[in-house]
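Lab notebook, bench 4. The sequencing result for the construct came back, and we need a structural model before the next group meeting so we can plan mutations. Quick request posted to the team channel:

Model the 3D structure of this chain.
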Amino acid sequence: MHVSMFVSRDSSFFLSNEMGDTLHEIRLLRFASRFLPLRAKSLSVEKPLPFWSTIRADVARFSEEGDGLRVLVRGLLSQGFLAILGYRIFRWFDEHHIPTQPFRFFVERFIEIVTGISIPAETRIGKGLRIHHFGGIFIHSDVVMGEYCTIYQGVTLGDLGGWGGVPRVGDHVLIGAGAKLVGSIEIGSYCQIGANAVVRISVPSGCTAVGVPAVVKPRSRVPLPMQV
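Done. Here's the predicted structure in token form:
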């Protein structure tokens, strides 16, 4: 059925609030696509990363909680940074094809026991990673994640039980507590994944995914890409 709608200046009929909200969301998505790529592609993790500059970028994220020696020490002693540091070290060895087994196996198991965080050395993660809190964080070895991402406790990035591929995450993505990202999906840059969301669909850049199963919603304010 073809339906035509004509709205004149003098018409007394107005579009419903629901249709208005839908049109507003479409405009936001179109605006976001002009500045941010829909594909979660980060060239920064396609090649080996400089070790010390990557660590400095990770440590620099502590400044978001304030300045001073106390903030720095608290960040360096956090379980999240311990897991990141272990990952960065063994990732460097892996990228340079330097064998570390079986020593790496025992260190990674120790980190998992102490922090409850599992980040295999094969995982590709850009600089500036921040893990708030700790416990129950598992990242599949095939996951690719961009720069300056933030992860909270209870997060899983994995496959569908041994099949189905794994997520690919863009830059500046925030993944809330308890969120599950599974399967061969792409999370665009500047996305926010809500707490306890179960995401099995790709999320365009500049959007938010919330709920079980996750529903994609455009963010009211779409940030522009940062020049780093």
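Confidence is low (pLDDT under 50) at residues 1-43, 224-228.
Will bring this to the meeting.
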